[in-house]
Amino acid sequence: MITPENLDEQESRIPQMRFDPMQAEEAEEIPQLKTENGQTPAITLLKTNLPEGRSPNRVLQAVKVSTEHLNFFYGQKQALEDICIQIREQCVTAFIGPSGCGKSTFLRTMNRMNDLIPGARVDGSVLIDGRDIYARQADPIELRRRVGMIFQKSNPFPKSIYENVAYGVRINNLARSRKSLDEVVERTLRGAALWDEVKDSLHKSSLALSGGQQQRLCIARALAIEPEILLMDEPASALDPISTAKIEELIFELKKRYTIVIVTHNMQQAARVSDFTGFFLIGRLMEFGDTRRIFTNPSKKETEDYITGRFG
Amino acid sequence: MPAGLGARFQPRFFEANYWISLTPMNEQIATQPPEIVALSAPPSLLSSSWTRRIRMGDLVARGITFLAALSVLVITVALAWELYKGSVPSIKEFGWKFITQKTWDPVFLSFGSITFLFGTLITSVIALLLAVPVGIGAAIFLAELAPRAISSALTFVIELLAAVPSVIYGLLGIFVLVPFMREHGGASLKAALGFLPIFSGPNYGVGVLTAGIVLAVMIVPFIISISREVLLAVPREQREASMALGATHWETTWHVAMVYARSGIFGSIFLALARALGETMAVTMVIGNTPQISASLFAPGYTMAAVIANEFTEATGDLYLSALVEIGLLLFVMTMIINALARLLIWSTVRKQGAAA
Predict the structure, then answer these.
(1) Are B276 and B331 in contact (CB under 8 A)?
(2) How confident is the model at residue A37 (pLDDT cuts 50, 70, 90)?
(3) How many pairs of residues across A and B have Cβ atoms under 8 Å apart?
(4) Does B103 touch chain A (CB under 8 A)?
(5) Which long-range contacts (CB under 8 A, 24 or more apart) does B315-318 make?
(6) Residues B95 and B282: beta-carbon distance below 8 Å
(7) Scanning every residue of chain B, which has its alpha carbon at the shortest distance from the alpha carbon of A159?
(8) Nearest chain B Cα to A160, which residue?
């Protein structure tokens, strides 16, 4: 079991680390790091994120979300068992595992979406920026503004494309004028790589879009309120390969600005897009670490069986 | 069945279709539905009883369901035709004046229906104005906010209300609402809003307003029951999408669930309106049955359905009877026009904002 205490240690043992040019552009200064094996490290080191007194090759992005002994119940049934994890800022963290293993449930604890399900109960804590989102005084509405979510099935509202994107901005009173709302809509649609396809039909129904476009519209809708974290629950599972590729490209773009947590059934997808991967099995987080290591050198038998396709 | 038969039959089956497609030049065959063509094909093409049974089954099912659908059309056309036939003497005698004229005088055989048209429309409008906010509000509470146990208990009661015969509502109106309006309701409305012409004049208890209230009570269960069903049918994904954007429960209900469900909610309102327009018994009992058009809602009125029910038995003479039938025809046409407008309204809003369902 991975606990916050031994997580850093686990990661420092990871021999293969990779360098991500996407993030390098954002970094003010890229320390030329080498691991003991002489390889380039996985995670970009932002100068500002370097805590003092730690050796640079052990330092990762700051922790954005962490859970401590998180248990989750649907009525009597326990869906998550003692999950302890740290999710890093401006990284893509993927969760894989067979159906019903709790990965989506875990994702939904991070924006308290499970609150809406009758009989759901959470035990333990989920900290975002060090604050417990399940604390008594925590406001789930405010939380969900900061933690956006993309669903498995694209679910645009039966309104125009413009109104879909503007919805979150309107209900959160984020735009002062019609003009600034227009700007937000354009900027977000560009950010979701959809602007060029829809700029002439902004006021047409969102349901006339193709499945892939609808999903990107949902991403735009989530981005419009500028969340800090983006949760994606199998965002490409219902899409064709080309639309999937577009979504994945988008994820690469988005991680410069957002912390992304993605649940996926598709292991190639997890390997392609994520920096960290967690493997869930029957409500437990079996293994968590650098994506490259999970896929090349898993430490648990179950992980290996799953990623080699022996079950799941 | 021998193993070889299926395989041998298969190409023949396709041959049959091929044969049909080769003969479109023959007009008789081209205009007939394909099934019939297949049956009239050479007997060798129908050699398998198994396949024939399948195709016969399809034909029979198609025929029966088609007849069922056809019967609706036949009834509608027959109804319109009979109403028209019955009102021909009246149409010949009065022409358009029948619609515009206020007089309704069986003694001098001078008939005009504008007062009844007005009575029907005004009572229905009052009923809708009262019933729509209450109905939709209750539906939202039952579908979105109430605990499950309360919701199902209340829904059961509401469906009971919808099944109560209208004469019972009429009795309720006569024994409870009319005295109440005479002694309290009307008086306080007058005191508060008496400066408005609609609340002026003498208040007898019976009248247009009372009829509208009784109608509202009668149609509210329809609006609640259907709107609640429609709201419950809004997909969870829609609500989650909204909640995930930081919307409150109420914002989600109002901006997302209601938008998604709007065509169904419109539908419930128009079904209620149709019932209000045609409602006879309860209205007859409380409206006062006086053919007049008054600005005051306290004044008695008369509706189209009420006049037909009240005077049909005492209608002596063909013209009198024919005038009543023509009122029926007008009611029929009016209901159709309102339904068509309702469809148009639903269609245009749904089209404008994107089809939901």
Answers:
(1) no
(2) very low
(3) 81
(4) no
(5) B315/B106, B317/B109, B318/B89
(6) no
(7) B353
(8) B353
Give yes or no for a contact between A83 and A285, defined as CB atoms under 8 angstroms apart: yes
Three-class SS state of B92: helix
Phi and psi torsions of A130, nearest 5°: 80, 0
Q: How far apart are CA B123 and CA B112, in angstroms?
A: 19
Residues of chain A with Cβ-Cβ distance to B239 below 8 Å are 116
Encoding tokens for residue B13? Answer: 């089956």
Q: Which helix (H) or strand (E) holds A69?
A: strand A63-74
Q: Does B353 touch chain A (CB under 8 A)?
A: yes
Mean pLDDT, rounded, for B111-140: 94
Note whether B243 contacts A144, CB cutoff 8 Å. Answer: yes
**Fold exhibited by the domain B95-356:** MetI-like fold (1.10.3720)
Distance from CA of A228 to the nearest CA of B (A): 12
Give the Cα separation of A55 and A46 in Å (integer): 14
Question: Which of A205, A215, A218, A230 to mutate to test binding with chain B, by most B CBs within 10 Å of its CB?
Answer: A205
Instruction: Tell the burial category of B41 from Cβ atoms under 10 Å away from its Cβ (0-12, 13-18, 19+).
Output: middle
pLDDT digits (tens, 9 = 90+) for B143-156: 999 988 999 999 99
Is the pTM above the cut of 0.80? no
The residue extents of the domains of chain B are 5-45, 95-356
Contact flag B355-A149 (C-beta cutoff 8 Å): no
Tens digits of per-residue pLDDT, A277-304? 999 998 889 999 888 888 888 888 888 8
Contacts A222 to B, Cβ<8 Å: 244-245
Q: Pick B354's closest partner by Cβ from A153, A159, A221.
A: A159
